[in-house]
Design goal:
There is one protein chain. α2 runs antiparallel to α3 and α3 runs antiparallel to α4. 84% of the residues lie in helices and 0% in strands. It is mostly helical. It has one domain. The longest helix has 37 residues. The mean pLDDT is 89.
């Protein structure tokens, strides 16, 4: 029984990692497209660009995590509550993610003479790690708990 639960948990983490990789790719692709289109690599407007990119990835995340990673089959009456919880957990993740990107790109200088584009992407890597842990814990223990 314990061994089976452990296997199920490890399988969930692996699925979450795969979904997370897809979401991270979407997040980075959208952010880089917006950076390229606007020429904005720091300052207050990067908050909006990052929030848009993060939001697109989150929509993808909800469906993959709900139906594949956590195999949630909530009742119709619980869907509104579940989605509002998902949005709440994810908004906190987006705030964490965006804060790291904003502060790294706006208040610190690029290391090793990285270009602004690469520095924004390095900031996004750090931000993704932080929000990834937060979101997994929130999804697993609050939203899609059994």
């Amino acid at each position: 029984m314990i061994q089976e639960k452990r296997k199920e948990f490890i399988a969930q983490i692996m699925k979450y990692a795969l979904v997370g990789s897809l979401n991270t790719g979407i997040d980075f692709a959208v952010l880089n497209l917006l950076l390229w289109m606007t020429g904005i690599y720091s300052g207050k407007w990067i908050i909006l660009l990052n929030a848009i990119a993060f939001s697109v990835a989150v929509i993808n995340s909800y469906f993959w995590n709900k139906f594949w990673t956590f195999k949630d089959k909530g009742t119709d009456g619980s869907k509104v509550k579940e989605f509002s919880q998902f949005v709440s957990i994810t908004l906190i993740g987006m705030i964490l993610n965006t804060a790291v990107v904003y502060f790294m790109t706006t208040f610190t200088s690029p290391i090793m003479e990285l270009s602004p584009e690469l520095w924004a992407n390095l900031a996004k890597v750090f931000a993704t790690g932080i929000s990834l842990v937060w979101n997994f814990l929130g999804y697993k223990f609050i939203i899609f708990k059994k």
